[in-house]
Design a protein that fits this description.
Helices cover 75% and strands 0% of the residues. The chain has ten helices and no strands. α2 crosses α4, α4 packs across α8 and α8 crosses α10. The longest helix is centred in the first third of the chain and has 23 residues. The radius of gyration is 18 Å and the shape is globular. The N and C termini lie far apart (49 Å). 25% of the residues are buried.
Length: 181
Amino acid sequence: MASDEKLVRRILRRQREAADELFERYYTKIYAYVYRQTGAVDLARDITQDIFLTVFTSLGTFDGRASFRTWLYKIAANKVTDCYRSRAHREAVLSEPLEDACDNVSDGFDIERLLECREDIQAVMETVSQFEPSRAVVFQMKIFGEMTFAEIAAQLGISENTVKTRFYTVLRKIRKEREND
């Protein structure tokens, strides 16, 4: 299996198979990462598609200082944050029809809990989108990327203490916002 960086070099030489391999390697992970932040299937698909479009059109700017994975997750975090900052999102209601949300659930599933969860995710992400990207990315990687503080520090090239400070700053703001609601 080729490394991400080797695949990037092959893609830059116009080898489509390399692009397909990189896409297959990360699509499910990035989709899950986005879905956990949106709670909406269609929106997660759209954002994931936009992420990969950005990745493949911007590969020439990938300088290799950070790993490809880190670069990819930064793009993903920024795209999700951009979505929550967008005027269209603020004006939209939940776009996924209730019937679609219920298609794959068992008879004992609590639909009210699903809707509350989606509303909570949106409220949290709207708060997170107000932070500068360096803080928002740490929060997104920890909560939605399910990474440890040490992994985030290594990925971003910053100290673990800086990661913790950024994370807990965002967390305090979210708690304060939720208490006010």
